[in-house]
């Protein structure tokens, strides 16, 4: 596969319903839960692109543009955005989807950096 | 949108990493966790198709074809499979994806039935 | 013990309070949580009957007869319903119990099939 | 019902499988998880006895006699042990049940005190 | 370090926000969640004091003086209160802190006893 | 209180034991769990400084310097690092503490930005 095809193939989606076990006392998705879901999606995207052992080394600026109310649906989409020699970056966007109409809005954007490691946890090259 | 387009549009995917908080003492995904994820994906699919208040009324036979080992990725795909007057059915398939190669296998199949209800919890017609 | 005594002995009960961490946005027990509890009770029942390594192979039709409101108590009861050569079936019923009066109603019924496996995960006979 | 019958009727059982999401780094049931399950069972027992709004006011000495290994089953049994004017006590015992033989041992004992409250959270008499 | 310094050094604090995934149907912190947090803080305190493998053997009387409302902050503080030959005791206090003013009140007090064990799970002396 | 005193007073600590329900398949703390804990500590710090309704608007670059092994203790420390007109920044550091010796290392650094809102969710000034 070309790099472009591998990026398409490794795009990773996750729909979640915003139920009470994910919310804060404002009845919106707790920011920490959002970050946890984003890191999981980013990790899966990075792993499905490289098929190597990947670990998070950093997240860049993450913007929480809109609060996400209880009783909505969120869609997370992870996509490889940059491929370096030993690291790669994954963009994750979260969208709010209303349950009872077709309104869909962007809510959160973040970018995560991963490095590939071998069994001794030493960094190795990203397979290109 | 035609019914066919609505079915395409409401297809719902969820990738998850099989971490220790989801496994049983055999180090495979706990069956109850799999059922919980399937019901969530089925509920989101039904809601995104109908844009109505949907409640689960039954699940048909669910086949656990393969155990899902810890340290793999699962993909759940929900898709509307039948539309009745006041109920609809959603098929959910779970696939196991290896992390470090391209192997992907079917693991679990299930079908869930939902009815649409109004604010008084009385059944209403599915919008067609 | 006779088979009949083993069925009595392995009957498995689980009471749970329906707190916010188990509910959906309708303030009723999330269907996925109910399925997860049912599979756990069915697994324990099957294991306590056979004292062998058991894995879920399927669930038959599960009927969600009544929604289960937040602030109630549920009782799950698992009971072996059929014993085959290499598989057995467990029925699970969920009852809703009101907290502040003696009303108790049936809410969900399901049946789960298990097979016995050895250490190599090959099917073995159910001990009779 | 007599008090004795109400005590029998309100006895509350909960079986749980000791899976990785409940254990500590010694691969035994985390003490905090055990306490949380005990308080839930005690609360349900107190509520099912009195059919009144009950709140925990204290737990007496709780003895952790035996560690509970991962891959076992636990049974919790709650039973009203003392009835006062505005409070009652519930004993909770936890037993470890091996999965693959009939060995069953006592592991933890505790006693919890509850008071009945009205809607304004003022203490009221236990219905006798 | 002196014993007194080791007690100071091992004092262990944990702040938590009381979100819906920790509450009961009265919209207050579920008692079982409070006990679970207390045992975790007590375990960390005991381990940080002794730097040995510690296991909970009992909790003394725990007093739930005040219910803890949703939408508040709790602070848990663990502190070694007694050092025996093979066991030590840890006091844990929980305080409720209002979010939008400086009011802080004591809510729960408990004391936990730990013993030190070696790799074979046999009791050993507390390092003094 | 002066600003400096308010910063001291609102410093917020959280100790956690790294148990299996928080780890990934490498047996290290899952990055998403770390981010969730960091956001909770940052939110509590911001709220305790301002005593106003605070919402996360962004996180700056977060560096995961060291993986955090299962069976260790982590300490999170949140501290207000910048106070603007309608927003403030909170730094969160995570340290790994070994259980059985006194080694303590820095593992993760992040900075979170919060804004104060009123009951209509409109931004308001930070109380100075």
TrEMBL record, chains A, B, C, D, E, F:
Cellular component annotations (GO), alphabetically ordered: cytosol
Family: Belongs to the acyl coenzyme A hydrolase family.
Hydrolase found in the keyword field: yes
Protein species of origin: Polaribacter cellanae
InterPro entries xref list: Cytosol_ACT, HOTDOG_ACOT, HotDog_dom_sf, Thioestr_dom
Protein name: Acyl-CoA thioesterase
Record's keyword terms, sorted: Hydrolase
Pfam family for this entry, one: 4HBT
Organism lineage string: Bacteria, Pseudomonadati, Bacteroidota, Flavobacteriia, Flavobacteriales
GO molecular function, one term: long-chain fatty acyl-CoA hydrolase activity
GO term, biological process aspect, one: acyl-CoA metabolic process
Domain HotDog ACOT-type: 8-120
Domain of life: Bacteria
